[in-house]
Amino acid sequence: MTRTDDLRGRARDRGASLVEYVIVVGLVALLAVAGFRAFGGTLSGKAEEQARCIEDFTTCPDGQPRAGSPDFGIERTRQPALQQLVTLQRSRPPTPSPAVESTDDDGGDDNTWSNSWDGRQRPSGPSADEEMVGAAEAETKPLPADKQVSDPTLRAIDAKLSGLFTDTGFVRAASSVRNQSVTADGKPTDSHYTFKDGKLHTLHIFANEAADSDAANVYIPKAFSDVMITSKDTVVARNPKTGEVILIAHVQVGSGPQGLKTLRENMKTVRPNGTVLIGKIGGEGGVGADGSYTHSHLSFFPNEAARLRATAYKKKNWEYTSETSENLADFRDLIE
Q1: Which of 77, 95, 280, 300 yields a CA-CA distance of 20 to 30 A from 321?
Q2: Which contiguous run of DSSP H or E holds residue 48?
């Protein structure tokens, strides 16, 4: 073999190796592309499923409860993931929608939604007021424990609130002697009606000074037109423009579909001052075992999320205190 033949053989060997290398690299690239496309399709499918779960509140593919379902876990700060609600402070349309019956999520009676409040089933239910207010007040005997102080300014506040929230009865709140408690150093303390800074968050409506009659009605400003019944004789009313919420406990309206029917009929009664009838005082939990302390209880909140947080706090701590002041509003804002 000549030197020229040897060089030619080596060149052919190098050419064969290069072709094999190119083929192997090409096969590896094809496999990589195929694998990436298959894996990418799986990721895309999962992402689309999760997006649909969030967008239309349908059942999520992993079996977890959807955000709008009754099984959706709500932290008892009542900061449901919405507002928190995941803030529950979803934007709600100001225009009326059909009344909705929704199932209670925490073991109480049916929640009955009316007017323009959210048309979906929403997490809510008996608040701490329904569960705790009656028990706390059962220890309070007729009005000597709630007698009125002599301060004319405080009496004038309650007189204005009386004109707004009742007809033949009266409001006891700012002028109650229960607000006069002080610490050892003479500083004011929180009471059932006010915080130590003076915020007037709660009021009671009585028919007479003996607190032994239900012959008085509860009225609220007609601007609080979005209403629901959270449990027997407890109504939550929301102002769709401001978001403010009034909770009315111990008012005789009932519960369920019949309660909603009663409430709707009552709210057709409008007084010249622009307030609408809710019902008679002395509903469930608003009358002592001996018939004493017949009343209705109202609390005021800046929005629905705040109501949920405040009532969860009260359930744990028995009363609202200054610690949760940001979650309550001042009734005086409605008369000034």
Answers
A1: 280
A2: helix 3-56
Each residue of 218-237: pLDDT tens digit?
999 999 999 999 999 999 99
Buried b (16+ CB within 10 A) or exposed e, 99-118: bbebebbeebbbbbbbbbbb
Bridge pairing between strands 202-206 and 234-238: unpaired
Q: Give the Cα separation of 254 and 262 in Å (integer).
A: 8
Q: What is the mean pLDDT of residues 193-199?
A: 95
Alpha-carbon separation of residue 170 from 148, 211, 328, 332 (angstroms) = 11, 11, 22, 16
- The whole-chain average pLDDT of the chain stands at 74
**Residue range 267-317, pLDDT digits in tens:** 999 999 999 999 999 999 999 888 889 999 999 999 999 999 999 999 999
CA-based nearest residue to 239, from 229, 228, 249, 225: 225
> For the chain, how many residues are written?
336
Q: Euclidean distance between the first and final Cα of the chain, in Å?
A: 117
In terms of DSSP H, where are the helices of 57-208?
128, 134-137, 152-165
What global pTM score does this model have?
A: 0.62
Q: Which residues, 6+ apart, have CB-to-CB distance to 33 below 8 Å? A: none
